[in-house]
């Protein structure tokens, strides 16, 4: 983590609202507007036509074209033709005019739906410097369809070269894949050569989401490595001196697609919506979505980060243009970098009052929230307590300054009326379609409406989970092992990290550091005493420790439920589809009978994570030949469930 | 000879002179052909040890007491150096070079602008060797006694010993200027012929004395440094007096030459007979034939004549096991691995090369310099690659980057005629304004054509046509010639820099074509970055040139220098940066060395360069040939 420490952000950075009228803009911002950026120093500017030409004529593509021609039995010309078509589609998306038009339109849209878009100016300034030196890779977290629009808009506004969005390149090619069978390989070849050429020539900054997909749960996702490897390759092969990585953390007070996401998680499909479709939805445009904080992280030098991690001589003996899978060393390096970027995104993110509130609300029994309601002043009290803890844990808060806490609380609740509402000094869970509730419903349907609201709450809680997750795992380890010995705690801590590694992103191979960090944070808030060999809870630490244990309880209960479900499975082989529906039915039954307290077991995201986790732990194996995503149970699953992951939090369901 | 012609003769005069000498050679050849083939007896007979007879009377450059004509703590001849005169103008002293006695008006500004150097801030080198700082010699008395009886001259004077304890690495020269002397040879011997060497090696084996062969002393790989851990008496075996051409075989176009002859003597003596070897490494004024063989040297005109491994036909080397040589002079053999390749590049670890049969060529009828300006380095490299692809490289073709182009410009001597300066201005205007070349990006290639006149002209056209395809503009013979002249004076320039807190050096590599641009960019950038990280106060000079073309790649030279004011240990910083630069070279697919060799400076990378088995092979050869490590300079392995 020494690297992390070096690039860690200064705590106090000034955020400027870029939607504010120009009259109020700061001098710094004024300077930005009047100076157009000096050009990239790494080489002469290159037009998009030249870029396309370079890609098309690359030795790499010519090689792949020949290979594909041989495999499919078609002529080289035919394959080349296909390549040209893919290229055309991709390059259409590079048109600057397209971006300009969007920037213009979106200024209006943003002004309507957001109260403010805050940007840290120091970060932006560092980025502007960086774009002149080496190829820059912008790496925002992915929480909303509009993420890349937000970034493009800001850069455009400040005369920084507008990035090429990896996601758009990927999608434009994806269309082609569906149409033509057997062109998968060709498409990946074009895409990767395109990306590499952009990096090689410094054509423009490249933007991609290291998490791969948009996070439906607003939690960081384990990074995907494909694009990461593509952008690292030109550096590893010496084609550029360095590559600059720039983590960007976008924090939404309220996410535009919040209810859409919750419904997706519950398996209630809504029509597939595109960005434009989403924004066209007049309902969305009528509502207020609070503020957006965009934090541009410090530029990271790939060269510095990879020093000693990669032997670049390995590329000396094979022509650099030939297709070559990254070896274990290069992959490990890419994976480490990707995980670190996610961590930096998390650290750069701002935690909103609402997110803290969500943590508190989820620890209140759901029935209380749906029926008698939670006293507002109680919620306020707990939230303020949590704010202090979050600050102790080095969280960056977007808590408005110079505003009375009560005002912050009430305006936050007001902003999120889609999830909670306040009535007579109490806070209740908002349940959709309340008005349509004419005749009595079956309890299952009723439950689903609650579930949507709870999952939304859970998503907002997830926004700040990264602040608490390490101390929380330690608190959990303390309660599971009932031990005070550091080595036993560390073993349990690592096991929990392993089990939950799809839920929470940890940098591989850094468990000890994570553990030490957890110790020091808990020590800092006086929850534990830490000595050389021991961690003991302090008299005053109970509140913190039990809060942290409760915070992870939904995960534990859900995992346990699914482990049990699988253990009771009679067949050795099951289909993912059946697993998902089976778990959902069981969970629904148990929730209705009030034997299961968390609604999160209903989340398809959690269900998939459990499967991946079990696969990694060797408890199930995926049957490769099967097209239906079939899994085979392994003997070790029983051992795993016998491990009694969390004896404390036992379910009282039998 | 461009390098050391003394006057201001134009190229045409030179050519005329060459042709005359060729013709004279034909006319004067004695009717008795065998006269030239007479085996020459060892001339050392009767000469007494410690008698300092100068050989200059015989037309040889290098006397036994090198200090008589050469600097003990800098490059080259004592009479030739750069200095700033009272008016603050740069000047090159002496009479030996084209630049000698000239004012170089642009140099001061260039030095100040490039390095932030200041004429007010000067560092004086220790003027004379303080012999009391030199450790007294550890002599092996028995060896000395027996050596005396052979009559081979030797010395254990401090000056002689110090002179043979170093090459021309920056740290070596820097230490000398500071008056710091480390482990040095305990004595110097000057064999006069092959048999002398045989005797010396026998005695060394008998008395367990460490021998370090010394040729021209131009090593830049720490190859001549005495291993500090060596406890035996170290004897420097100076081959400089073995400098005769023993015979010339005009039927087969070969010459049999003693290994100590330095390049300029070899060429001059052969020229007198109408021949040349065409082997012209940048150090050819001082480096020796034996040194070339021992380091796998490369000459600037290798495109016509080949590198040293292409030039040698036969090598004789004295090793502790005896003499190694081939039985015939067949031009190529299939007799197992070529034993010459154990000798070539052995860097003095196996024995002493004493005699070499080398290919010779009739002197070229016509020589012509040329130069091409390219809008940028990328285009220039593309042009060189195309020239290599078409296999039409001239005798020499070199591409300097923009910084080096500016450097070359700064070394332009004062022009006497207003017409020349007007022409220069016009040329500059044409290139930068009319053709739109960016003065901060353009770069220049220098060319040297050799051969029959019509062929040269034809060849020239072909190359210029290719250059034009890459946006190149012919920029005249003058620029070309100055580029090559620079090669010979650049080492002198380093001494000037060191007077003003600027230290630097060059290093080289070879690399496949597709990586040339990448390696140039990355290594230069790495140097700049490392300097910054190491606390160098001023931006360094970090520049490169492509100096040789091959079918599959090129040789790239890097020049690196910086102003070290404010640094407590500048040499250490320099070494760290050079180390980082070499790492960068290797990471970018470059070789450990193209022709400088490994020595001790680059030893640490040998294993990864040639693999474990490779090291094992070399070790086992060493173990067989020299089991007691008599040739104990510890280079290479």
Structural commentary:
The complex is a heterodimer of chains A (654) and B (637). Chain A is globular and about 70 Å long. Chain A has 3 domains: 1-254 and 289-347, 3-Layer(aba) Sandwich (Glycerol-3-phosphate (1)-acyltransferase), CATH 3.40.1130; 353-463, no CATH class; 467-641, no CATH class. Mean pLDDT of chain A is 83; it is low at 1-10, 22-35, 177-182, 434-438 and 646-654. The relative contact order of chain A is 0.08. Chain A contains 28 helices and 16 strands. In chain A, the strands form 4 sheets. In chain A, strands 1, 2, 3, 4, 5, 6, 7 and 8 form an 8-stranded mixed β-sheet that branches. In chain A, strands 9-11-10 form a 3-stranded antiparallel β-sheet. A 3-stranded antiparallel β-sheet of chain A has the order 14-16-15. Chain A has 654 residues and is α/β, with parallel strands linked by helices. Helix content of chain A is 54%, strand content 9%. In chain A, α3 (48-56) packs across α10 and α4 (59-72) crosses α5 (76-92). Chain A starts with a helix and ends in a 12-residue tail after the last helix. By secondary structure, chain B is an alpha+beta fold. Among the domains of chain B are: 66-115, Double Stranded RNA Binding Domain, CATH 3.30.160; 131-240, Uridine Diphospho-n-acetylenolpyruvylglucosamine Reductase, domain 2 (2-Layer Sandwich); 245-362, Uridine Diphospho-n-acetylenolpyruvylglucosamine Reductase, domain 3; 501-596, GMP Synthetase, Chain A, domain 3 (2-Layer Sandwich), CATH 3.30.300. In chain B, 36% of the residues lie in helices and 18% in strands. Chain B has a 7-stranded antiparallel β-sheet, with helices on both faces. In chain B, strands 8-9-13-11-12 form a 5-stranded antiparallel β-sheet. A 4-stranded mixed β-sheet of chain B has the order 4-5-7-6, covered by helices on one side. In chain B, α12 packs across α15. Chains A and B meet through loops of A and α17 of B.
């Amino acid at each position: 983590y020494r690297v992390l420490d070096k690039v860690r952000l200064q705590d106090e950075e000034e955020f400027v609202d870029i939607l504010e009228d120009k009259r109020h803009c700061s001098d710094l911002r004024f300077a930005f507007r009047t100076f157009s950026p000096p050009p990239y120093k790494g080489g002469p500017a290159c037009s998009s036509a030249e870029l396309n030409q370079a890609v098309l004529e690359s030795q790499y593509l010519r090689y792949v074209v020949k290979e594909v021609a041989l495999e499919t039995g078609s002529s080289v010309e035919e394959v080349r033709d296909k390549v040209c078509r893919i290229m055309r589609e991709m390059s259409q998306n590079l048109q600057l005019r397209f971006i300009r038009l969007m920037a213009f339109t979106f200024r209006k849209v943003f002004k309507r739906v957001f109260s403010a878009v805050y940007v840290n100016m120091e970060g932006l300034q560092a980025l502007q410097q960086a774009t002149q030196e080496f190829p820059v890779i912008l790496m925002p977290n992915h929480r909303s369809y509009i993420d890349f629009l937000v970034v493009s808009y800001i850069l455009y506004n400040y005369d920084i070269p507008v990035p090429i969005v990896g996601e758009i390149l990927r999608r434009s090619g994806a269309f082609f894949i569906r149409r033509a069978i057997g062109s998968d390989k060709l498409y990946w070849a074009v895409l990767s050569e395109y990306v590499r050429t952009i990096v090689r020539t410094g054509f423009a900054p490249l933007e991609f989401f290291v998490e791969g997909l948009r996070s439906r749960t607003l939690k960081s996702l384990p990074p995907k490595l494909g694009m990461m490897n593509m952008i690292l390759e030109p550096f590893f092969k010496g084609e550029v001196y360095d590559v600059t990585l720039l983590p960007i953390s976008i924090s939404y007070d309220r996410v535009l697609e919040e209810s859409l996401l919750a419904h997706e998680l519950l398996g209630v499909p809504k029509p597939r919506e595109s960005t434009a479709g989403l924004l066209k939805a007049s309902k969305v445009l009528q509502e207020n979505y609070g503020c957006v904080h965009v934090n541009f992280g410090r530029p990271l030098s790939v060269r510095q980060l990879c020093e000693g991690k990669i032997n670049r001589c390995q590329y000396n003996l094979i022509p650099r243009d030939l297709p070559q899978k990254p070896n274990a060393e290069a992959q490990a390096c890419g994976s480490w970098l990707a995980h670190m970027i996610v961590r930096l995104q998390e650290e750069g993110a701002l935690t909103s009052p609402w997110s803290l509130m969500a943590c508190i609300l989820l620890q209140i029994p759901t029935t209380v929230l749906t029926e008698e309601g939670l006293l507002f002043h109680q919620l306020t009290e707990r939230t303020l307590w949590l704010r202090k803890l979050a600050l102790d844990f080095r969280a960056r808060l977007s808590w408005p300054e110079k505003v009375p806490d009560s005002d912050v609380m009430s305006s936050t609740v007001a902003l999120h009326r889609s999830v909670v509402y306040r009535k007579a000094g109490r806070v209740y869970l908002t349940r959709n379609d309340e008005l349509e509730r004419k005749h009595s419903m079956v309890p299952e349907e009723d439950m689903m409406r609650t579930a949507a609201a709870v999952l939304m709450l859970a998503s907002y809680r997830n926004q700040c989970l990264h602040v608490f997750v390490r101390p929380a795992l330690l608190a959990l380890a303390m309660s599971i092992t009932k031990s005070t010995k550091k080595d036993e705690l560390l073993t349990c801590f690592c096991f929990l990290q392993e089990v939950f590694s799809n839920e929470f992103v940890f940098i591989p191979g850094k468990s000890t550091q994570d553990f030490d960090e957890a110790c020091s944070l808990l020590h800092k808030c006086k929850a534990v005493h830490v000595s050389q060999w021991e961690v003991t809870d302090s008299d005053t630490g109970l509140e913190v420790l039990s809060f942290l244990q409760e915070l992870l309880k939904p995960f534990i209960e859900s995992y346990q439920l699914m482990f049990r479900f699988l253990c009771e499975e009679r067949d050795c082989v099951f289909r993912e589809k059946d697993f998902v529906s089976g778990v959902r039915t069981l969970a629904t039954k148990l929730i209705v009978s009030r034997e299961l307290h968390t609604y999160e077991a209903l989340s398809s995201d959690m269900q998939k994570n459990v499967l991946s986790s079990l696969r990694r732990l060797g408890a199930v194996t995926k049957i490769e030949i099967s097209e239906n995503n079939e899994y085979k149970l392994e003997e070790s699953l029983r051992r795993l469930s016998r491990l009694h992951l969390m004896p404390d939090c036992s379910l009282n369901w039998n | 000879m461009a390098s050391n012609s003394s006057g201001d003769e134009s190229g045409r005069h030179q050519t005329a002179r060459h042709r005359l000498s060729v013709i004279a050679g034909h006319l004067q050849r004695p009717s008795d052909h065998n006269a030239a083939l007479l085996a020459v007896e060892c001339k050392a007979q009767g000469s007494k040890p410690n008698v300092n007879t100068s050989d200059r009377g015989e037309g040889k450059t290098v006397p036994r007491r090198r200090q008589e004509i050469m600097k003990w703590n800098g490059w080259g001849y004592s009479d030739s150096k750069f200095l700033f005169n009272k008016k603050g103008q740069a000047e090159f002293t002496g009479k030996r070079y084209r630049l000698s006695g000239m004012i170089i008006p642009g140099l001061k500004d260039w030095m100040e602008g490039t390095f932030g150097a200041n004429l007010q801030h000067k560092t004086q080198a220790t003027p004379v060797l303080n012999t009391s700082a030199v450790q007294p010699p550890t002599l092996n008395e028995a060896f000395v006694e027996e050596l005396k009886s052979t009559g081979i001259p030797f010395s254990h004077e401090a000056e002689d010993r110090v002179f043979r304890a170093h090459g021309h690495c920056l740290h070596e020269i820097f230490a000398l200027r500071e008056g710091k002397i480390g482990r040095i040879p305990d004595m110097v011997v000057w064999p006069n012929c092959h048999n002398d060497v045989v005797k010396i090696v026998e005695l060394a084996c008998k008395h367990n004395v460490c021998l370090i062969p010394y040729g021209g002393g131009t090593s830049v790989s720490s190859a001549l440094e005495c291993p500090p851990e060596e406890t035996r008496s170290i004897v420097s075996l100076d081959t400089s007096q073995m400098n005769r051409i023993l015979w010339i075989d005009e039927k087969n176009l070969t010459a049999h030459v003693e290994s100590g002859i330095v390049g300029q003597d070899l060429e001059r003596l052969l020229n007198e007979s109408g021949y040349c070897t065409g082997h012209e490494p940048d150090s050819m004024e001082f480096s020796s034939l034996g040194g070339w063989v021992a380091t796998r040297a490369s000459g600037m005109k290798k495109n016509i004549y080949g590198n040293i491994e292409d030039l040698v036909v036969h090598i004789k080397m004295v090793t502790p096991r005896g003499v190694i040589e081939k039985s015939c002079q067949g031009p190529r053999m299939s007799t197992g691995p070529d034993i010459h390749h154990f000798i070539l590049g052995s860097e003095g670890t196996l024995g002493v090369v004493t005699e070499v049969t080398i290919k010779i060529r009739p002197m070229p009828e016509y020589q012509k310099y040329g130069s091409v300006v390219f809008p940028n380095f990328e285009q220039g490299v593309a042009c060189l690659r195309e020239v290599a692809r078409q296999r039409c490289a001239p005798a020499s073709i070199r591409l300097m980057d923009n910084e080096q182009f500016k450097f070359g410009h700064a070394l332009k001597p004062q022009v006497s005629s207003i017409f020349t300066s007007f022409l220069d201005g016009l040329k500059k205007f044409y290139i930068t304004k009319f053709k739109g070349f960016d003065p901060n990006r353009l770069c220049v290639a220098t060319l040297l054509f050799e051969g029959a006149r019509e062929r040269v002209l034809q060849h020239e056209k072909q190359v210029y046509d290719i250059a034009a395809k890459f946006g190149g503009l012919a920029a005249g013979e003058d620029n070309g010639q100055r580029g090559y002249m620079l090669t010979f004076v650049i080492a002198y320039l380093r001494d000037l820099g060191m007077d003003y807190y600027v230290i630097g050096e060059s290093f080289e590599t070879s690399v496949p074509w597709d990586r040339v641009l990448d390696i140039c960019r990355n290594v230069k950038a790495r140097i700049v970055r490392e300097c910054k990280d190491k606390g160098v106060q001023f931006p360094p000079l970090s520049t490169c040139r492509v100096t040789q073309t091959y079918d599959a790649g090129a040789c790239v030279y890097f020049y690196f220098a910086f102003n070290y004011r404010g640094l407590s240990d500048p040499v250490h910083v320099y070494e760290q940066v050079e180390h980082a630069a070499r790492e960068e070279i290797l990471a970018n697919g470059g070789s450990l060395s193209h022709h400088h060799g490994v020595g001790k400076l680059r030893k640490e990378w040998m294993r990864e360069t040639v693999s474990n088995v490779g090291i094992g092979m070399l070790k086992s050869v060493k173990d067989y040939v020299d089991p007691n490590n008599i040739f104990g300079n510890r280079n290479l392995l």
